[in-house]
Amino acid sequence: MCLPNGCPVNVSPNDLSAGTVLCIIFFICVSTYFVVGILYKKAVESASGIDLLPHTSFWTSLPGLIKDGYLFFISPCLGDRRVKTSKIIKSPLEMVKRVENP
């Protein structure tokens, strides 16, 4: 039901939006993932230090993956200022040529 000026009547300013609920669920799931993963690695695998993190190789490579994704996304905008990729092997044939002619 609406009032004559168009404002809804039954809206409470303390209601949570769908986005807020999704953020709360997301952070609860991430927290649970880390807590359960750390407890499992500590109890079952007797890990310590950084090895306690579940999927350690993924989390340690994530900053580099984010950087690579950013550079891939922004590279059309960089033009001639982009990082030179001359040392990157683009095909298996280039690898064979570099091995034969160092």
Automatic annotation (TrEMBL):
It is found in: Membrane. Keywords: Membrane, Signal, Transmembrane, Transmembrane helix. InterPro entries: Autophagy-rel_prot_27. The chain crosses the membrane at residues 18-40. It is a single-pass membrane protein. It comes from the Eukaryota. Its main location: membrane. This is Uncharacterized protein.
